[in-house]
Design a protein that fits this description.
Strand content of chain A: under 5%
Structural class of chain B: mainly alpha
Number of helices of chain B: 13
Number of domains of chain A: 1
Oligomer: heterodimer
Shape of chain B: globular
Strand content of chain B: under 5%
Number of helices of chain A: 13
Number of strands of chain A: 2
Strand order of the largest sheet of chain A: 1-2
CATH architecture of chain B: Orthogonal Bundle
């Protein structure tokens, strides 16, 4: 249906006519600089999700899987942000970032770095990174659990064998743990890919794409076009584009991994 | 495995660093939600509240969150019951169909999982308006159930497939009907899976924002996330009260998490990984 709408100029109300628009929505999509900014931000989020969230998630997953005392409780506590609603999280962090009475600026003032205080979400330069910190805060626990679950499925004998052969901790990690986690890494890369293309609620709540479109993402733009400016046809076009993009990216990733697997031991 | 003292220290220090990053925002939230507005503006954000000042909570509830809370509970519970009922029946049928037909249906359901909700948003909005359910809670339940049915069926199917057929054959000999088999045998056996999927669906419904934003408009039908968002637009000046509102919206899930712990993680992960 979205594909169908994408060929019309229509405001979404039944009383008004649907005007066939041919490919004009698609043409304006590719000319729309704001859309490209949004796509660029989505792409940035994908890249940093994979390069930052997954490694940290992996390390934390290994950490909570160690048999040290208290790790079970720590794992439970780590997972907490993952269950909270995007609206609650977004609003909470908005207050943390607030330029006047926010937590971060208060801490900076307190430790004598007052000149670094900032309207974190209000400055186009820092806004996207501030948003990204919140995304990390919410989703790294998710990757942590993926890796912790994968680790718990690995027979302990493998680690013991490595110890007996005299492997150091870092050797065990790189030569035993990491290769055994390949599957989990693949899963989380694909999830990060799909997830990063779909961020909406958190960014909607925190910045609404602003300031000056610096945190615009595709899902948000689609929502605005369809439900705020009533360009149903154009909104549908963005939605279709997102779907095709995430599907093809996923397929490419799967393929790349399959090729990479041939080198596995 | 044995760890040296140095390694242990490094591990614990890194654990604590992440713990602070992970939990401090929530501590900030709770302690400042109990301050008066004056106290909030004059003290540092990390100072504890001078006394337990709960008026923010009662004010936040009076300010429209109560309606949202009730709406959220209604929508979550009804959607949950429907999705588990339909989902478990469908999975049972798929698991017991002849291989080919069952597989066909399963593929239909799985292909439902690959559809992101953003592509359904505009059509769902238009259909909802068309059938006159716009701005009603009922209009929300349909998309909620539909969006989580594929995952639910997929997970339940995997569990039900492994139930040995011997149980059913015995029941058939005893004269049980298909529904009795489903209700008396299949459901009790798949209870752990039902709970896991149920938790995932419930968290999803409770936190859902996008459909609610698009399909609801008036204060009387707002769900909690939407009511909270709206309160932010209206009373954003009174920060402690807003923080109290956020606490109220997060509290039910945190309490549930406190009770179910590992189960909740498993449920969330089962849903997210298959989804």
């Amino acid at each position: 249906m979205s594909l169908f709408y994408s060929f019309f100029k229509w405001n979404g109300f039944f009383s008004s006519p649907m005007i066939p628009a041919g490919l004009s929505n698609w043409v304006s999509l590719f000319k729309d600089t704001i859309f490209w900014k949004a796509a660029e931000n989505n792409f940035l989020l994908v890249v940093i999700s994979i390069l930052i969230q997954i490694p940290i998630g992996l390390l934390l997953g290994v950490l909570v899987s160690t048999k040290l005392k208290g790790m079970k409780l720590i794992k439970l506590l780590y997972f907490l942000p993952m269950m909270l609603s995007a609206v609650g999280i977004g609003l909470l962090w908005e207050y943390i970032y607030d330029p006047n009475f926010g937590l971060i600026n208060a801490v900076l003032n307190f430790i004598g770095l007052g000149n670094l205080t900032h309207g974190w979400l209000g400055d186009p330069k820092t806004a996207i990174w501030s948003v990204f910190v919140v995304i990390c805060w919410e989703y790294i626990p998710f990757y942590m659990i993926i890796f912790a679950a994968a680790l718990s499925g690995i027979p302990k004998e493998l680690f013991e064998a490595a110890r007996i052969d005299g492997a150091t901790h870092s050797q065990t990690f790189f030569k035993v743990t990491l290769p055994l986690l390949t599957n989990a890494i693949r899963t989380s890369t694909i999830l990060a890919l799909i997830g990063s293309l779909q961020y909406f609620a958190l960014i909607y709540v925190m910045t609404d794409g602003g300031p000056t479109h610096s945190t615009e993402v595709m899902a948000l733009l689609m929502y605005k076009q369809a439900f705020r400016f009533f360009k149903t046809g154009y909104g549908s076009t963005i939605a279709v584009f997102m779907f095709v993009l995430s599907l093809s990216l996923t397929l490419v990733t799967l393929k790349l991994y399959r090729r990479g697997r041939e080198y596995e031991v | 495995m044995k760890y040296s003292i140095q390694l242990k220290i490094i591990l614990y220090i890194s654990a604590v660093i992440w713990l602070i990053f992970s939990l401090y925002p929530l501590i900030f939230l709770i302690q400042n939600s109990m301050k008066t507005q004056w106290e909030f503006l004059t003290t540092s954000p990390w100072s504890p509240p001078s006394k337990l000042y709960l008026t923010n909570y009662t004010d936040a509830i009076k300010g429209g969150l109560l309606r949202g809370l009730l709406n959220s509970i209604i929508v979550t519970l009804i959607s949950l019951v429907i999705v588990l009922f339909i989902g478990s029946m469908a999975s049972f049928a798929i698991a017991r169909f002849k291989a080919k037909i069952g597989k066909g249906f399963l593929i239909l359901f799985i292909s439902g999982m690959t559809v992101p909700i953003y592509i359904t948003l505009i059509p769902v909005y238009i259909i909802t308006r068309y059938i006159g359910l716009y701005d009603t809670l009922w209009g929300l339940i349909g998309p909620y159930v539909a969006s989580s049915l594929p995952v639910t069926v997929f997970i339940l199917f995997s569990a039900m497939e492994t139930i040995p057929k011997g149980f059913e054959e015995a029941a058939v000999i005893d004269g049980a009907s298909a529904f009795q088999i489903y209700w008396r045998i299949i459901l009790p056996i798949s209870r752990p899976t039902l709970i896991a999927v149920g938790i995932y669906d419930m968290v999803h419904y409770w936190n859902e924002f996008v459909y609610a934003l698009v399909l609801l408009s008036s204060p009387k039908s707002r769900t909690l996330p939407l009511a909270l968002w709206n309160a932010h637009g209206m009373f954003s000046m009174n920060v402690p009260e807003m923080l109290a509102g956020i606490v109220i919206s997060l509290l039910p899930l945190i309490m549930l998490y406190g009770i179910t712990q590992e189960k909740m993680i498993q449920g969330m992960m089962a849903g997210a990984l298959k989804g």
